[in-house]
Write a structure and sequence with these properties.
Blueprint lengths: L4 E6 L10 H20 L3 E8 L4 H10 L3 H18 L6 E4 L3 H16 L3 E10 L12 E4 L8 E2 L16 E5 L7 E10 L5 H9 L6 H10 L6 E2 L1 E3 L17 E3 L1 H5 L2 H13 L6 H4 L5 E7 L3 H16 L19 E5 L2 E3 L2 E2 L10 H7 L2 H11 L6 E3 L1 H30 L11 H22 L3 H22 L8 H22 L4 H10 L11 E6 L6 E6 L33 H13 L1
Parallel strand pairs: 1-2, 1-12, 2-3, 12-13, 14-16
Antiparallel strand pairs: 4-8, 5-6, 5-7, 8-9, 10-11, 14-15, 17-18
Helix pairs in contact: 1-12, 2-3, 4-8, 4-10, 6-10, 12-13, 13-15, 13-16, 14-15, 14-16, 15-16, 16-17
This protein binds zinc ion (ZN).
Length: 597
């Protein structure tokens, strides 16, 4: 058991609509599996995120509906809070970027960078619509990528090669709003001096040996072409620039991405302020022994392996120009950027604009959260793009969860309940009994090592292999044939139940809802896996109400070790833990999918 401070920094979902299962396979489920495992292992986890609510897509949606950007953000924040809670994602605090606290922390980071000389003002060419004279946001300009030649590159980023772009770099730019060619006019902005961090970022990445190789290679390649990036935008929705002559301006704001990544820090500070110890966040951000793991889909690597580390380095005074830390003191850089690839759907890329999606809320209306969590863990896009199909979802649910794990739980507890009515008292254990228990208790070492390195697919495969060993043991020992030898039958059932207790521990980070049920089926009382809850709070500074996700995770009994079961604990006939899915669901879902696309 260790007692490390571990920050789980989860990518901030953008508040322009409900989340689909592609989103939560990238940032959601992997970050929760990691956090639940680390808490079970005795570490002090702080898992934070929130909705990302600034930027142009929100203002475009607001204009289209004739409502304020805040109304759009409020509505989608609430929807997303519901989606993520339904999946059992155990945030210590899931907040939002429109809090007064977040604005203050974002402004402090900007001022720290300015003090050390890492942001500078420059007049640049910005795009406007010739017909309306209004600023054309980067994302609403499309053209050919100057780096890879991809036709559908956006003004801020090329989704094909992942490079950050400025709209003026695009070949043949056009407005996505009305198809006209944008006009570029002069506008004054603040820039982050990224080239001043080339050496510091390179040195830091050079020490990051444990990252997933694809993520590390991508991050190192980003350093080849560092250019200053505009820290501010011509927009009236976002965080004000904390400088005289700029603060009151209605046409200039901090760029949404530069405030969104500060959210990891501001949410930690908000959590501390709400906990009653406003300085508590420092244990995760300033202790040299603390670790910070950032979870996201691969389209966000640039912001977590380049932009945010550069902001932190500059705030600390750690770039080419030196400097001293801002008023918070020096802040820790990420330990690891844990990025997943993309989840496609029935062979097509998930895209809400093309409506080829399955929303989390629709999924949870018809299926269990743990069935989706299992699919993402065992077949998700950990190292490569992967495809979700309903046929494969059904097959894994039925063959692996129901017939593998669920059946082991069900037949063992049924037999013990029927014959003994309690966890049986074992006699002398045989070699076969001891071998199985050595395997199941020993798996905490092997599976835990994989989870600690975020090799989650290998971890769940190993846990399910151990479940297979327990199933094989039960078939080989055949306690149902031991009517004439109840003493031996009881030893076999005791061994099987202890193996189930161990396997349930191994699977708890992946299947927290099922883990609570199995805990209770084994006669356990109280809470094994704590689930998150939605709490209605008010802004700490301006009093506006909003919902947060939080939870008392330290109160759960789940630990990362074999927990002995107690003979004599009463057992009832179990209800099935997982639901078998009928063949007809595949056709029904494909029909829904075709109608939606
Ligand atoms: Zn490109």
């Amino acid at each position: 058991m260790s007692d490390r401070h571990i920050l789980t920094a989860v990518a901030w979902p953008y508040a322009n609509g409900p989340r689909h299962i592609g989103h939560v396979s990238g940032f959601g489920v992997p970050s929760d599996v990691f956090s639940r495992y680390q808490r079970m292992a005795g570490n002090r986890v702080l898992m934070v995120s929130g909705t990302d609510e600034h930027g142009t897509p929100i203002t475009v949606a607001a204009d289209a509906e004739g409502v304020s950007p805040q109304e759009i953000a409020d509505r989608n924040n609430r929807i997303i809070v519901g989606d993520l809670t339904g999946l059992g994602l155990s945030y210590d605090l899931f907040t939002r970027t429109t809090t007064a606290n977040h604005a203050a922390v974002s402004q402090e980071i900007f001022l720290g960078l300015l003090k050390n000389g890492y942001v500078f003002a420059q007049t640049t060419l910005g795009a406007i619509s010739p017909s309306t004279g209004r600023t054309l946001p980067d994302r609403y300009i499309e053209g050919t990528c100057p780096i890879c030649g991809y036709d559908g590159a956006r003004g801020d980023q090329c989704d094909n090669c992942g490079n950050q772009l400025d709209p003026i770099d695009l070949v043949n730019p056009v407005s996505k709003i009305n198809g006209e060619t944008p006009k570029f006019v002069e506008s004054e902005h603040w820039f982050l001096d990224l080239p001043a961090f080339a050496k510091a970022l390179g040195d830091w990445l050079g020490t990051r040996k444990a990252w997933r190789p694809n993520v590390l290679n991508f991050s190192v390649n980003l350093l080849e072409d560092l250019k200053p990036r505009s820290y501010t935008r011509d927009i009236d929705w976002g965080i004000r620039i904390p400088l005289p002559d700029w603060r009151e301006r209605d046409d200039k704001r901090i760029y949404v991405w530069f405030d969104a990544v500060v959210g990891y820090l501001s949410a930690s500070i908000e959590w501390a302020r709400r906990s009653g110890d406003p300085e508590a966040w420092r244990q995760w951000w300033q202790s040299p022994d603390a670790d910070a793991y950032y979870f996201m889909g691969k389209d966000n690597i640039v912001f977590h392996a380049e932009i945010w580390p550069a902001q932190l380095l500059g705030y600390n005074g750690g770039g080419d120009k030196g400097g001293t830390p801002g008023s918070y003191g020096a802040l820790n850089l990420p330990t690891e950027v844990v990025s997943s690839e993309f989840l496609t759907m029935e062979g097509k890329k998930f895209s809400s604009s093309r409506r080829v999606v399955i929303y989390v809320r629709d999924f949870l209306e018809r299926y269990d959260a743990d069935a989706l969590r299992y699919f993402i863990a065992v077949a998700g896009p950990e190292n490569q793009d992967t495809d979700f199909t309903w046929a494969e979802f059904r097959r894994r649910n039925n063959d692996e969860l129901v017939a593998g794990w669920g059946n082991l739980v069900n037949r063992s507890i049924s037999m013990a309940a029927k014959n003994v009515g309690a966890v049986p008292q074992p006699g002398d254990l045989t070699d076969a009994d001891r071998d199985l228990l050595t395997t199941t208790s020993g798996a905490f070492g092997t599976v835990g090592e994989l989870l600690g390195r975020n090799r989650q697919k290998a971890a769940i495969n190993e846990a399910m292999r151990v479940v297979g060993e327990a199933n094989k043991y039960l078939s080989d020992q055949a306690p149902w044939k031991l009517k004439e030898d109840p003493a031996r039958r009881d030893s076999v059932l005791f061994t099987a139940l202890q193996a189930i207790k161990d396997c349930n521990g191994l699977l708890s980070p992946f299947l927290p809802h099922a883990a609570q049920q199995v805990h209770e089926l084994l006669g356990g009382e109280g809470t094994w896996s704590v689930q998150p809850r939605i709490e209605e709070v008010t802004d700490l500074d301006d009093g506006r109400p909003y919902p947060v996700i939080t939870g008392d995770y330290a109160t759960g009994q789940a630990v990362w070790a074999s927990v002995p079961i107690t003979p004599g604990t009463p057992l009832d006939t179990p209800k099935p833990v997982f639901t078998k899915l009928d063949e007809s669901i595949v056709e029904e879902e494909l029909r829904r999918f075709e109608e939606g696309s």
